Amino acid sequence: MVRRINGACGLLNRAILHSTLACFLVWLGLFTLIHYQVIDAAFFGFSSCANTEFEYNPHTASRPAFPPPENTTYRAPDTIDTFLNYNYRNHTDCQISSLDLHSAFSPLCRTSEEFIRAFSGGGRVGFNRPFIPLDCDMRWFTTQEICEIFSRFEKVIVVGDSMMRHVVGALNVLLRRDLGYGAVTNWNFNDQETLDCFCNHQMDVKACSVQGIFSTSSVLENDPDSLACSQPINLVIEMMLRFPLDPTEVIRFQDLLSSKKPKKPYAFVFGHGLWNDLDIQASLNWLDGILDHTLEKAPYLNPSGRHKHARPPLWPRIYITPNSAGVRKPDAWLVSQGDKALMVFEESVRVEAGKRGVDTLGTWNMSIQSTKYDGVHLDLKGNLIKAMGVVNWLNLIHVRDW
Ligand SMILES: *[C@@H]1O[C@H](CO)[C@@H](O)[C@H](O)[C@H]1NC(C)=O
Ligand SMILES: *[C@@H]1O[C@H](CO)[C@@H](O)[C@H](O)[C@H]1NC(C)=O
Ligand SMILES: *[C@@H]1O[C@H](CO)[C@@H](O)[C@H](O)[C@H]1NC(C)=O
Fold first, then answer.
1. Same domain, 203 and 316
2. Which of 4-11's residues contact partners 24+ apart within 8 Å by CB, and which partners?
3. Are 12 and 89 found together in one domain?
4. What pTM value is reported for the model?
5. What are the alphabetically sorted keywords of the record (predicted)?
6. What is the Å distance from ligand 2's center to 82 Cα?
7. Could you tell me which residues are beta bridge partners of residue 102?
8. Per-residue pLDDT tens digits for 362-401
9. Judgement on whether residues 86 and 48 belong to the same structural domain of the protein
């Protein structure tokens, strides 16, 4: 019985109709004829019909959304939890795996432009799920690699607001291999702070986020063993919020720069916006002010200071726009600092900063499907992704052009 049904279908398929529907109708007729006695046989007959029409064809199969990362040593860290040996990684209250933050795929972005577009346009499939850049991937570097990348620069100078302080905090978590207290000045903590400012709470408890680390030199002064890098590195933040610029902040900022060209290049990371209610003109004035003060102190960075046809000096600068808003952002701010304002601001910065030779790392798409504990700021996990974005940008700078 089984053979007859199969045979009938096969014959129809090959010689007459070549259509599953017809095959199914013939099968239905036979089924009515033979009825209950051959239920099993009919089932097998049907599946055999379907198989001849729907065979897997690798040439017509849709491309998987995320092909696996390249099978190379260079990409291997992207497929493991790079936090495995970080301090407090195994603490019950600090279960953060790097694999929860970023999901690796191929191909890897090759240039800075590719990476910036991929990061700014990437997103997540589901709330708080791993971040996936758009079209090409970023690296998830190990601490050893991050140390090497930082060591290519005289200084990595971050200028901005609380969002940038959090990015610096997350970078220090990576540089100190410490998920528990890497972002904060735990060397002067009392018992209460040690309890309160742990892991994710380094950022999401206000009293703790003001205990952020501001410079590598303060780590070297207070807790040198906590720095994982064997080579010299220098990461520093100057908090500058207001426009017009505060003269004491400007002096402190200029003191970070050498008036003679140093051996290695500087890299500048800017972040601003919310303090001026996303007034694009205020943020551009802020940026222009800082760029002018930079050139005042470090004229060797001036793009128009050399012969007309010479390559302009290497002056790597990136602007990180504020991340998306969360449900806890107060209603009173929804017009001035809500998601629409944030998205328009990000686009405007991309255009205007670009005219000044400053790259823009957008964070709206990366952050929309993630926790903003106060409606404004990302927690440690979100900031670790921003921080790894900064490291990827640094890695793609051609420092040999210095
Ligand atoms: C990756 O490459 C290594 C060495 O070339 C090989 O042994 C391994 O089977 C490869 N893995 C996959 C998933 O292709
Ligand atoms: C955490 O546990 C894993 C697996 O047991 C281990 O390999 C790793 O070294 C531990 N990390 C720390 C910091 O103790
Ligand atoms: C990401 O989000 C912004 C909104 O902030 C949008 O304008 C932009 O086009 C998106 N994509 C990319 C690639 O930046």
1. yes
2. 5/30, 5/38, 5/41, 5/42, 5/44, 5/45, 6/44, 6/45, 6/48, 9/45, 9/48, 9/49, 9/52, 10/48, 10/52
3. no
4. 0.85
5. Membrane, Transmembrane, Transmembrane helix
6. 11
7. 131
8. 999 999 999 999 999 999 999 999 999 999 999 999 999 9
9. no
Does the structure show a pLDDT above 60 at 284?
Answer: yes
Give yes or no: residues 57 and 80 share one domain.
no
- Determine contact, residues 163/322, Cβ cutoff 8 Å: yes
Distance 139 CA to ligand 3 centre (A): 21
Q: Are residues 17 and 158 in the same domain?
A: no
For ligand 2, atom 6, which residue shows the shortest CA distance? 84
Q: Which of 278, 346, 363 to mutate to test the pocket of ligand 3 (most atoms within 8 A of CB)?
A: 346
Q: Which of 190-194, 259-263, 397-401 has the lowest mean pLDDT?
A: 190-194
How many domains, in total, are found in the chain? 2
Ligand 2 pocket test, pick from 84, 92, 94, 98 with the greatest ligand atom count within 8 Å of Cβ, gives: 84
Asked whether residue 82 falls in the same domain as residue 27, the answer is no
Question: Which pLDDT score is estimated for 31?
Answer: 43
Around ligand 2, the residues with Cβ closer than 6 Å are: 84-85, 89-90
Q: Which ligand is in closest contact with the Cα of 134?
A: 3
Which domain range does residue 186 map to?
76-401
Share of the chain above pLDDT 70, in %: 86
Phi, psi of 341 (to 5 degrees): -60, -40
- Ligand 3 atom closest to 321 (CA): 5
Indicate which atom in ligand 2 lies nearest the CA of residue 86: 13
How many angstroms separate the alpha carbon of residue 72 from the centre of ligand 1?
8
For residues 349-353, average pLDDT: 98
Q: Give the burial class of 65: count Cβ atoms within 10 A of its Cβ; 0-12 exposed, 13-18 middle, 19 or more buried.
A: exposed
Question: Residue with the nearest Cα to atom 7 of ligand 2?
Answer: 84
Amino acid, single-letter form, for residue 341? A
pLDDT tens across 23-75, in order?
A: 343 444 444 444 444 444 444 444 444 556 778 888 888 878 899 999 999 99
From the number of C-beta atoms within 10 Å of its C-beta (0-12, 13-18, 19+), residue 169 rates as buried
- Nearest C-alpha to atom 4 of ligand 3 is from which residue? 343
Q: If you measure from the C-alpha of residue 19 to the centroid of ligand 1, how many angstroms do you get, rounded to a whole number? A: 42
Q: How far is the CA of 81 from the centre of ligand 1 (A)?
A: 19
Mean pLDDT of 12-16: 39
More reliable by pLDDT, 222 or 1 = 222
Tell the residue number behind the tokens 């309160």, with chain if given. Answer: 196
